[in-house]
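Practice record 12: protein with 6-diazenyl-5-OXO-L-norleucine.
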Amino acid sequence: MEELLQKILEQNRYRVKYGRVASYIPALAKADPGNVGISVANMKGQLFTAGDCCVKFTMQSIAKPLALIQALVDRGPVEVFRKVGMEPTGDPFNSIIKLETLNPSKPLNPMINAGAIAITSLIKGKNSSERIERILKLVRLMAGNESIGINEKVYRSEKETAHRNRAMAYFMLDTGVLDGDVEDILDTYFLQCAIEVTCSDIANIALCLANRGSTPAGREIVPAEIVRIITTFMVTCGMYNASGEFAIKAGIPAKSGVSGGIMAVVPQKMGIGVYSPALDPKGNSTAGIHILEDLSAWLDLSIF
Ligand code: DON
């Protein structure tokens, strides 16, 4: 397996030059655009790695499905989907337009920024620190890594510059999607985006989803019914407005983030974490996407 990972990684390394490291969050611009790493965790919990699998990066949008898990555990699907829809958008991840044009106003799904901010507001806790502690506890359990924490620099950098997310949050306060302390809700959202992981952490989290919510040792962390909802969203909305193409080419439920990570779940087979910070214009890792497509072709991983 490691030989195959190495080969696929080397074949796709050149693609980093067709992408750009995200810079709208200033601290993300410091990433090394040459980094490429992959980790695969099989159903026994064994890890196979290649390249920069131990470089730390922030989860960014990969935290969205995890926050959704916590909100579903806390509130149940009826309450959650009263606030946020289940449909893909076809728009960029940070688009604001449909918040105004849809009537009644409701973010289309939990994988875009507006939807994720609304989901974060549903997580139980009296303030941001209580909410983020609960998200972190879930992430640590799923990853089997107690040392996972927050990258303070990235958190602060986003908090200082997130004008568009702030605009969306206040818009949602106006339309009743959000209630309560908007800055406190945004704070949890910025913190969850700044959770710092490696490819191997992501592979282990994905493995927990691939194993219907349980660790390889059989301990249930997430109810299977919630895992089903999460992996379905990963297929329909996980790669933003590239989700359709990725479903055809790779056929693996996946979630990308603007730091360059992608979490991919192959049900009953494996969890995969890929990292390469050079992004395409839609915000997905250029090398990462193709590595997953090639791995899927080699190992016949498409779920379709
Ligand atoms: O809110 C943002 O814009 C970022 N913290 C996360 C966006 C993101 O990762 C989109 N992914 N492709």
